[in-house]
Amino acid sequence: MRILNLYAGIGGNRKLWGDDHDVTAVEYNSDIAKVYQQFFPKDKVIVCDAHQYLLEHYKEFDFIWDSPPCQSHSRVRFIAMGREERPQKPLFPDLRLYEEILFLKYYFKGKYCVENVVGYYEPLVMPQEINKHFFWTNFYINPIKRESREHYGTIETLERKKGFDLGKYNIKDKRTILRNCVEPETGLHIFQEAFREHKRLF
Fold it and tell me: How many CB atoms lie within 10 A of CB 93?
């Protein structure tokens, strides 16, 4: 398949996909994009706005994975606004999430998966929930259960859990970068479901 991996981060969702497919990754942060490229040297990595890239290039791909920023939708962050110590400021929900869901649903002819956190509000488009995350797709994902995500673990704990060693990289917010990674096993499971659907159709 020709695959587009949007908001790629360091590639948690992509980690177990292998190298049999043509993967293009889009990441806005150039430092994070460099780390991704070292982990996945065969992928084409583009540093730009993923939202705009999707609009301009969606027809070039068979499968699109889309993980737009989650902070403004997060139930955990919303609850944290009420705490006395380091309270969070309110944010407008970033509705590019739903722009991309609707765009893919009505314009894209291939298979797609949009991933985000469970939000603090009723979803505007109903997703499938897997392991405390929301997934919007045009194919069914068989349920999968995984062990604890170790979301509040140390950098070392998260590195072991996600399978990435960031020790040699001089990048900021390593813990946040690791927490933002989709579980590699979940990414593989969904990828395999999409690939089966792709083969069935083509």
Answer: 16
